[in-house]
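Please produce the structure of this protein holding glutamic acid.
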Amino acid sequence: MAVKGFNPFEMAQKQFDTVADLLELDQPTRDLLRQPLREYHFNIPVRMDDGSVRVFRGFRCQHNDARGPCKGGIRFHPQETIDTVRALSMWMTWKCAVVDIPLGGGKGGVVCDPHDLSPREQERLCRGWVRAIAQDVGPLRDVPAPDVMTNPQHMLWMLDEFEAIYGAKYPGFITGKPVGMGGSLGRTEATGYGLVFTLREALREMGNQCENTVTAVQGFGNVAQYAIKLIGRFGGKVTCVSCWDQVDRTSYTYRKKTGINLDELLTITDRFGGIDKAKAEALEYERLPGDAWIEQDVDILIPAALENQINAETVKKIKPRVKIIAEGANGPTTPEADAVIKERGIFVVPDFLANAGGVTCSYFEQVQGNQNYFWPKEEVLNKLDEKMTAAFLAVSELARSKKLFMRDAAYVIAVSRVANACRDRGWV
Ligand code: GLU
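Below is the modeled complex.
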């Protein structure tokens, strides 16, 4: 998102440079991996319901495809920028590599606020995005998926447009499709559940378990909702969530010290994760400022909204009790905040590991689609748990043995895999 003084792409490059030094990567490999292989910028003219035309700006970045076709979501956000999409495409490359699935990294975006668009306008925008990029994506090149403010319905419209252009069925063009239309059971839960699988392992390493913990969550979209659900199933308590208020154009934190009730909150939440203030107050939730989630006296913090939320300023507010930060969002923590977190010894499950459950399940969707045979939900979630746990253990083992910060250990594994793939292909 466009935030003054913060550039997510510079942050992603800074993180990469640190690991490139650690791995002593040669210059051509650094040059290749420091920026996307390809990027596309385009205009999408959309006929609005009132007959007028609005032109939206769209992007797709393909960061790296040495390990397989590019993979990553499409975000709809009013403050989307090309640098955000570049950073996110890079993080997708590391994400697919750290969980060891045969995919590269890509990301797309449209500068728009879907709150202001009717369903028909959203459909035309989705179809327009596909028409603009159809020649450069596809099952064997670059496979989109849902992300911030996009959902399975958007994916289906996009698929339908792609298939109309090519005159055949290409279910492999996109993932995150609705169940019954080529989607996988468990895909909706996958990112939030995957996050909690890694959190469970982190707690286990500390000799603890979810049951004895209290968590504060930032965000109340798909990732946050399912993370909260599984934490609840594991017996843990979540005392607050924060979310964007569309009417006031600001965010609030909703707190109940005895623990929030997910099902109750969901009845007063819109499809973008916005909670109705008046109804929350009637249900006796305290309404605090949007950034209050970070200063809660809890064991675990889960930033599951956007990038740049734990930065040089906000990191100071983290209470001494906090032992784990599990990053549901992409890029929530800046390198400046990381330095403080390292010093304080807070255990971090870094973003591209913690939130890799979504893309892992997208990979399962591809596998099932290729076989044209779909697995029961339990099988999908068990496989997801296996993949996430294995990836977590590989990272934490390396972190322990080489005395590395968890984020650096995850980067070492991911970047080495991608650098090796580039070298083995003879690119560098
Ligand atoms: N948008 C999700 C992410 O950031 C999922 C990407 C995918 O499934 O391709 O990981």
